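Entry:
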Amino acid sequence: MFDPADQRHRAFALLLVMPLFFSSNLVIGRAAISSVEPWTLAFLRWVLAFAILLPFAHRGLVQHRDTLLRQWSLIGMMGLLGMWFCGAGVYFALNYTTATNGTLIYTSSPILIVLLEWLFRGRQVGLREGIGIALAILGVVAIVVKGSLSILLALEFNAGDVIFALAALSWALYSVLLKRKSLAEVPTLSLFAALALAGAITLFPFTVIEIAETGRFPVSGDAWASIFGIALVSSVLAFSCFQYGIKLVGPSTTGLFMYLMPPYGVMMAVVFLGEELHAYHFAGFVLIMSGLVLATAPPWLIARIPFADRLTGQIRKPVSGRA
């Protein structure tokens, strides 16, 4: 028998590297786009991820095929949001901006999830959460405009940063849809495999067009090493560690480890890609992380932050629809 204490220790060890796995997507992707086109990279990533998952997910896919077929439109939409926009869109954006910018902007996704649930599901948002949302959005704006008021006033935004902001919103929508009760009975790995396949299907026609127009398909060992690394590390391992953590220590504790994504991602971008840090990066990081903690941290953690637990007012909005 497994010792529960040992299992928890193993879970915490895996959760410490989980954000590293997630963050590796932008760093490996930034290096890979010099030899692999964006849609091709995203398509091959999710085809390989599906192939890796299939032996473990096959039974669940067969058992729940009726549910998956009934929900094909929802799964297709999630594949578009999570694998098309947040896959090819992100790799396309990395042609115009840095992995550092992308990592910090992408970190705002949990804030946007709270905002979407407030808008579409009537979720009550506390004053503390509202302040956190405002701080995080200010942090994203600071990075997009490079800390320059003149850039903001002139509306001269970097296309890559704007795409990353849209990708963060897309991931938030994907995460909200993932909570639909209609998918609750499908095992986690089986659902992930179905979404990976749906994502690959949405990417396929664009990949064919891209290859026809550019005449480029990855042939070098380095290119395929990058693709396999993204599929295995950034997709399968990252997601598996996340789910393992939720199973053993709960979603709240697991979610706290996601706060390590920005420092991990920025550190890798600096070390492996030679990217430079600027004052607006630090300003954006402080604003986004402060907002993230205020808006998403559990009450027991907030109680330890001076004055933060006094922000208990509610910002109410009636239910207006469903995301």
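Strands lie at 125-126, 314-315.
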